[in-house]
Specification:
globular; Purple Acid Phosphatase, chain A, domain 2; alpha/beta; 21 helices; 6-stranded mixed sheet; 7-stranded mixed sheet
Length: 566
């Protein structure tokens, strides 16, 4: 009898385990998120003027424009293979769709064919490259019509004046697709109180209907750069912390955004202990050619980074004239590695352009031209010089009692572009003690010191004479302030000597220390919200705040004393 009872209990346990597993499988939601597709119609032939044997056709945006249609095709093929429940596209579906409506038609046709072949629904929202309010622009109404099959037709509600809408993704989750763009400005967000309250209203309705709300928007909700609202203000919404506070307390846990072209996960904890995550996803057609794969249950959310590493290069070469066999071979060996070198060439090209006198805005013969031109020339020289060996940056650094750590970087440009590519890729792993960060901070210190030293007495005296020959000595400080404001913006020369204060920002750019993995991680699901968890969230928020203060102070003192170390 006991033996029969044991067998029966064991059978019941096995059956109940199978039932629980089957239930968990049924409740799982899996989807892909790809931001900033930036579809660009391929040119008939490659054009460019960068001094690079392979990447001479790279552009200042470092975007693979000619390859973009084939990257998008490869991404959709991977989505079909993974059999996702749905696909989210948070804006900038096109590169020039704001003025070239036909580009939207091409993208919509690709998405329509994908839906018809796979049955996987796609949901879109406009980005700043997609719509505008000009006479010849693609308006929001036109965008809604072109992409009617991708969220708008099945929407529970559509906002009349923007591209925002709400749609049920399945029995558990509801999408709040928010148009965060300003129709009259190229990159700036168009967030208003009305749009914030619209989101809160939809989140409240989702709660009443027993749905978990997921927010999709083009602009970032949270910082994905140190002090992003200051140094990259057009990429994050206004009043982002107060908005995040409201959204988190309204029950929104997940936000999917783009625009910044970086892969970064950021978290904000409200005063009530509710957490909200903003997953910024890099541009699909720019290194690292990456999108997100998300798997959710009520208790757990897992996300991974997926990469497009191969395209139809035969079709690419047939459509665009000018590709060499060497370029195609490198693409076929690994498109992601090719895209990284393409990006590094584009970033260097863009930064070098910004260091021209034309971009600074001082014409030859104007007051201060020779001074600034000499300083800029010194900066470019240091970036182009070899880091090590004879006639190198290391030799110059030694004269200022600075020792550069040994690395594999060839020159300053190599370091700068590598760190830039790491920012786009996410999971920046350069901690305080890595040679990369040490080299970055000491290079900044050296550039500032040597650049000022490059401007010799003769140049300074010539500028002084120009000042004194002006209307009078009373105008000297005024003219100097005007010059420095024109060159450095709101930063004065005196503040540049306090470069140690900048080191935490540079460090935060190179090292992602917010505790949330950017590309591959697991967080609590929507059903884990409870009083005990929220109390712990508040405690963690306070601890993280003080840890950040300690980090910044340690960086300041460590950097400012670096010239005297050892």
């Amino acid at each position: 009898m006991k033996k029969m009872l044991a067998v029966l209990l064991s059978t019941l346990l096995v059956l109940s385990s199978v039932a629980v597993f089957a239930s968990a499988q049924e409740d799982k939601t899996e989807f892909a998120v790809a931001a900033d597709l930036h579809y660009h119609a391929p040119r008939e032939a490659l054009e460019g003027d960068i001094d690079d044997e392979i990447f001479w056709y790279a552009n200042r945006r470092a975007a693979m424009e000619d390859e973009s249609p084939y990257i998008i095709d490869a991404f959709l093929a991977q989505c079909a293979e993974n059999d996702y429940d749905f696909v989210l596209l948070p804006g900038d579906l096109t590169n020039d769709g704001r003025v070239l409506t036909e580009d939207h038609t091409v993208v919509a046709d690709k998405l329509r064919a994908f839906e018809q072949e796979t049955g996987i629904p796609v949901y879109v929202i406009p980005g700043n490259h997609d719509t505008g309010a000009g006479e010849k622009d693609t308006t929001v109404s036109m965008f809604k019509e072109i992409y009617a099959d991708f969220g708008y037709n099945e929407a529970l509600t559509v906002d009349e004046t923007t591209g925002s809408y709400v749609a049920d993704l399945n029995d558990s989750y509801r999408l709040i697709a928010l148009d965060s763009c300003d129709p009259t400005k190229s990159t700036e967000d168009g967030m208003t109180a009305d749009r914030v309250f619209w989101v809160l209203k939809q989140a409240k309705q989702a709660e009443k209907d027993g749905k978990y709300p997921i927010l999709m928007m083009h602009h970032n909700l949270l910082d994905h750069l140190p002090m992003q609202r200051i140094i990259s203000r057009n990429f994050i919404i206004k009043f982002h912390y107060s908005t995040a506070e409201l959204f988190a307390n309204a029950g929104i846990k997940l936000v999917f955004s783009g625009h910044e072209h970086c892969s970064d996960a950021a978290v904000y904890t409200s005063m009530l202990g509710n957490t909200i995550y903003d997953f910024a996803t890099t541009s699909l057609t720019m290194y690292p050619l990456q999108y997100r794969s998300v798997s959710m249950t009520a208790d757990e959310i897992t996300y991974t980074a997926q990469t497009v590493d191969a395209i139809d290069t035969d079709a690419l070469k047939a459509a665009v004239d000018g590709y060499t066999d060497a370029q195609i071979d490198l693409m076929n060996q690994g498109l992601n590695a090719y895209a990284k070198d393409f990006l590094k060439a584009g970033v260097e090209y863009r930064l070098a352009l910004s260091l021209s006198m034309e971009k600074i805005g001082i014409a030859e013969g104007e007051f201060g031209y020779e001074l600034v031109n000499t300083a800029v020339g010194g900066l470019l020289k240091l970036l182009e010089m070899p880091l090590y060996g004879e006639n190198s940056v290391s030799e110059i650094a030694a004269s200022y009692n600075l020792e550069l750590p040994e690395t594999d970087y060839e020159n300053g440009w190599d370091l700068v572009t590598e760190l830039a590519s790491a920012h786009y890729e996410g999971e920046e792993a350069y901690s305080l003690d890595t040679p990369d960060v040490t080299l970055l901070l000491r290079m900044v210190s050296l550039i500032l010191r040597d650049d000022l030293a490059t401007v010799g007495d003769e140049v300074f005296l010539k500028v002084a004479n120009q000042l004194l020959s002006n209307v009078g000595t009373d105008a000297v400080m005024q003219d100097m302030n005007k010059l420095m404001t024109k060159v450095f913006g709101c930063v004065t020369p005196g503040q540049y000597f306090l470069v140690a204060l900048v080191s935490p920002l540079l460090y935060e750019f190179a090292f992602d220390g917010d505790g949330v993995p950017d590309n591959n991680g697991t967080i609590d699901g929507y059903a884990t919200v409870n009083t005990q968890k929220n109390v712990q969230n508040v405690a963690d928020r306070i601890e993280n705040f003080f840890s950040t203060l300690v980090l910044y102070f340690s960086l300041f003192f460590r950097f400012i004393t670096a010239p005297f170390a050892g």
